[in-house]
Amino acid sequence: MDLHDIRRQYQLDRLTAEKLLPQPWQQLQLWLEQAMAAKLSDDPTAMTLATADVTGRPSARIVLLKQLDQQGLVFYTNLGSRKAQEIKQNPQVCCHFSFLGLERQAVIYGRASKLSLREVSKYFMSRPRDSQLGAWASQQSKPIKSRQLLEQSFQQMKQKYSQGQIPLPDFWGGFRVEVDSAEFWQGGENRLHDRFFYQPSGPGVWQIERLQP
Ligand SMILES: Cc1cc2nc3c(=O)[nH]c(=O)nc-3n(C[C@H](O)[C@H](O)[C@H](O)COP(=O)(O)O)c2cc1C
């Protein structure tokens, strides 16, 4: 397969300092809203979460953003998973959003901390019953011999919790990524992309600098 000639020009929009909102979470929210309105993807809230273990070895995967505000970015997962174990060792993470249909990407750097039981419980109870059972059935990131065993585990949970509310598994939770810095990228003609980097310059105040493409 020859990939050398796969390229395109980025001409859709220009990003200027004047267009940017003062807080990075506000800018991300705006771009998310625009991506949703443009119907670019069936998973508009998907973000690639990168973590690293204590030795610095990175890993990445997609998770769904479930809340975004001044406090940070929230996602939910299994606490025994690779990502959760890595966050335990090293809370520094990176969340990457691809809005390629708008020729944009956003990169959020921050520190992940576990959500309170109250927050996790509230969200878990709002999930469809089958998703709740799916959470119980899977020891995420651990090996399993077959698909059949996984489906058996799901059926067992379905029987076990056939009546009433399904309780929150103690191995399931969520994280909030508090934003340390962020970058917003808009593709430009001739590879002269617009890049703006946010970093704190005081409590609640962000300095915004243009970066070279
Ligand atoms: C569109 C999409 C959304 C996903 N959302 C989540 C999510 O919100 N939480 C989650 O734990 N895994 C989610 N996954 C699965 C993860 O990408 C990953 O396979 C899983 O969390 C195990 O990752 P780990 O072994 O690195 O911890 C999603 C995958 C895709 C493709």
Describe the protein's architecture and organization.
The protein has 213 residues and is of the alpha+beta class. It has helices at 24-37, 82-89, 117-126, 129-137, 147-160; strands at residues 46-52, 58-64, 67-69, 72-78, 92-99, 104-114, 172-186, 194-202, 205-211. The longest helix is centred in the first third of the chain and has 14 residues, at 24-37. Flavin mononucleotide binds next to strand 2, strand 4 and helix 2.
Ligand species: flavin mononucleotide
Count of individual beta strands: 9
Task: Quote the distance from N terminus to C terminus.
Answer: 28 Å
**Structural class assignment:** alpha+beta
Helical content (DSSP H or I, runs of 4+): 25-40%
CATH architecture term:
Roll
Series of secondary-structure elements, N-terminal to C-terminal: HEEEEHEEHHHEEE
Overall, the morphology is globular
The Cα radius of gyration reads 20 Å
DSSP summary: helix tally: 5
Strand content: 25-35%
The CATH topology is given as Pnp Oxidase, Chain A
Low-pLDDT sequence parts: none
By CATH reckoning, the class would read: Mainly Beta
Q: What is the number of domains?
A: 1
**Superfamily at the CATH H level?**
Electron Transport, Fmn-binding Protein, Chain A
